Amino acid sequence: MTIDWQAFTPVSALGGGALIGLATAVLLLFCGRIAGISGILGGLLRPRAGDTGWRLAFTAGLALAPWLFGWLAAPAVPHFGGSTAVLIGAGLLVGFGTRLGSGCTSGHGVCGVARLAPRSLAATAIFMAAGIATVYVVRHGLGG
Amino acid sequence: MILLSAFGAGLVFGLGLLWSGMANPAKVLAFLDVGGAWDPSLLLVMGGAVAVAAPAFAWARRRRRSLLGLALPAPPSARIDRRLPSGALLFGIGWGLAGICPGPAVVLAASGAGPGLVFGLAMLAGMGLFELWQRRG
Question: Domain spans of chain A?
């Protein structure tokens, strides 16, 4: 393993992480809800009376963040990897998988880990290992 | 007030994703690439988020209602069914292919980046397929 110190950004990583934790705390303390993005979006596809407003409000805030961030800081330029076909396949897997597994990086990886939920600790270990294995195969091949 | 709190939480969450680098697929892939030039930054994103969120969950455990009088989540279940590992596995493979998880997908699609829109729509389709599959099964 070689650590790429040039790419390492500890300040923005910790600061951004703290903001994610703060948002999670606000949604929990005020609305009594878990800030799991796949669960929030999935609930919109299965609407129940009285359970839609907060989901739409949270998603609207999330969707407006790039605009506010571009105004506060230098606009972030994302770099995408993979062809359109790969993006479509990956999107389908992420959508179906997070619903089947009841959570994603935020619901399991942040909320679940923060309250030491056994299901989330297991899910986080599995999706991290699967992500690492997938990148390994794509970038370095099966031959190692 | 509930809607405003949820909106504010979503906005701050998105700013956190953008600042931390989670909304940059290349950075996420560099974090997952432990066999190449590894960028450990995203470990700190998770560490920072968990460190701030954990006290809030500890507080919620001792309470019955949120500050706005809403029900708090039930204590986590310990039952691990077959769906959990299967779903986590599929999600992890998709995450490793594109470097995008659901929160950043919303941010990237909303920022108008073409590949972000493609991924976001495919992700919603995947969620929709799950709903269909579940209703059928």
Answer: 10-141
